[in-house]
Amino acid sequence: MATQRALPVLDEQPDRWEAQLRKGVLEMAALASLWQGRLYGLEIIRFLESHSQLILAEGTIYPILNRLKAEGLLTSEWVEAEAGHPRKYYSLSDAGRQRLRLMTEAWSSFANGVSRLLEPVFHAAEKDLSAGTPILERQEKQ
Amino acid sequence: MTVEVQIESYLTALRLHLGSLTIVEREEIVREINAHIRDSAEQSGSSVEAVLARLGPADELAKQYRDGYLIRKSSRSISPLVLLRGALRLATKSVFGIFVFACGLFGYSSGAGLLVVAFAKTIAPAHTGYWVQDGRMVGAGAFEFGHPAQAHEVLGMWIIPLTLTLGSLLLLLTNYLIRTSLRVSQHWQSKL
How far is B188 from B68, CA to CA, in rounded Å? Predict the structure, then answer.
């Protein structure tokens, strides 16, 4: 009984938290996807999926691109394609490059700090895995 | 439903829900989403239905555009009405927004009240002022009939420049406060 009650909490909470986490870095990720050159919306989505499994729903990226452009961090241009319809390509503006550099600095010091903090947990989890004991069961026993 | 009808009805709904944006911005968004639907269906080989499902409902998508737009637009405005609308939108999102909206409402109404006093002094000078009795304030404001007979008014015509200045300052300060809060919130919002 205890297992049945506890499991949904353990299953759902990290999911929702993870979704928030992904959403939080989406702006930085969108800027980062354009670091090497211009892309159109769907290419940005594919880029983020293949590099970081970062997309929540396809619709989320477009309003973000729209806002980044309004803030002057991105520029856009319509380019005719063989597909028969033009595509809207985005590029980083100078301000966008600058912002992304600052974000990268902040992110890496933040991520390093958090990693150090989580190191003991990480090692414990690894040990559990190699011992063949699922973390959930261990927590149940305690 | 044919593919074209499916796409068109999605775009029509999107256009409808983007009503508050300018026509140029709206059409640009619709054009981009149109290209996305066609590209996505073609490149992933999935049906238009599946692509539309991945995009989410048109009204949800429009809402994400509209929220950013209203707050952005009002943060550039100097009109108290537009600013208050922006603050109201912010209030639906966070406790900070509720606080900004309440301060805005208080600031604007107090500022306007002071201006009303200045105006009232010109049409009802005997009943507008700041009354003092034995060193204590016993009445202040416009069209004031409730103060005791022994009380005397201390400001005279000075109340006009005084309330005009204070009222205008308060209105400007409130404008500044809301605009700044809306700008700051845009950065928060993009990180939430």
Answer: 12
Question: A2-141 belongs to which CATH class?
Answer: mainly alpha
Amino acid at B159: I
State yes or no: pLDDT of A69 exceeds 80: yes
ipTM given for this complex: 0.74
Q: Which of A23, A57, A84 sits opposite B54 (nearest CB)?
A: A57
Higher pLDDT, A20 or B48: B48
- The answer to whether the Cβ–Cβ distance between A59 and B61 falls below 8 Å is yes
Cβ of B35 within 8 Å of Cβ of A71? The answer is no
B116 or B146: which leads in pLDDT? B116
User: Which residues on A lie below 8 Å from B192 (Cβ)?
Assistant: 23-24
pLDDT tens figures, A31-45:
999 999 999 999 999
CA B175 to chain centre: 10
- Minimal Cβ distance to B32: which of A27, A58, A62: A62
Is B4 at the interface with chain A, CB within 8 A? no
Residue A59: which residues within 8 A CB-CB, separation 6 or more? B54, B55, B56, B60, B61, B64
Count the helices and strands in chain A (H runs, E runs): 5, 3
Spatial separation of the C-alpha atoms in residues A50 and B38, rounded to whole Å: 21
Q: Where in chain A are the domains?
A: 2-141
Cβ contact (<8 Å) for B54 and A23? Answer: no
CA distance A107 to chain B (A): 12
Q: Which of A41, A67, A86 sits opposite B190 (nearest CB)?
A: A67
Alpha carbons B153 and B132: distance in angstroms, whole number: 6
